Amino acid sequence: MKLFYCCYGGAHTSVTCACIHLGYLPDDRIPAASEFLSVPYYDKMENRDLGTPVFMGRDEMGWDIYIIGMKNVKQLVIPSMKSYLNACGVEQKGFMLINALVELHPVTSIGGVLSRRFGIVSLGRPMTVWGIRKTYPKFLALVEQVKENLRVRQELS
Amino acid sequence: MRIIYYSYWGTYAAYTMAALHAGIYKPGGLPPEEWIAAQFELCRRYGGQYGNLMFVGLDNRFREVYSMGCKKHAGMVIRALQHISRIFQIEEPVQFIDAGRREGILPVLLQRIGFRREKTAKKLFTIWFQKNYRACLQQVQRTKQALKDGIIE
Predict the structure, then answer these.
(1) ipTM, interface predicted TM-score of the complex
(2) pTM summary value
């Protein structure tokens, strides 16, 4: 069973969601900036690696959690993944894609562009952390919803 | 093995090459008019669909041949599919063949302006098809040879 958190660059929002999901980031408080920086793959995905799913860990229900950056062409990459799996005869019950692009603070977006596109990491990375901390409850809500969904699926199956 | 011909649109050069590879279009000459009309209809209906794999047929070695449209993001789509293969332990290899260089400007015109004037659009499509058929055929023959020689694995 594989779950993919998708976002634009695969560097901030999807990583944050995956880390909350896996317990690398707390779900009862807003983490300190230093906690973000110690998270694996935070603000690390290079443009040339977009489209590459990165394994983040396995959750308590047995789902393998991945992150993937798809720029602004989710509507192209997702059908290609699904139709490919379909062509290969892979059962898609155990395959889930979650849009991790929650309503972001503009500072996160600006920081992401500075860090990932222009390589100004020293300025961009702290900006992304600041912005994500501001909208952290939205990430918590999304992950909680996903986990609830997975629990219901598990009960039904 | 799966062979995927891809380009910006999945129904023009990519489909033509896939059909040639699968033996639906014959190397001897242009396919019958109604087949060209059928591909035109395919473009009209599904030209704007991106990402979906279209199964075209099996080649003489029973390899599955597909076409796919992936705009300018072929690199990202290919990376995603190759990794998905590994993640889901799909052992059958997949080969991606770029058909984009044979596409030219006419498909852009048809897709952007639309197919409102059907007669003109059909004529333009036929011109595009006749002009590019030979080049598509040559590329398919080169690809088949490379697959045979193991240059592409």
Answers:
(1) 0.89
(2) 0.90
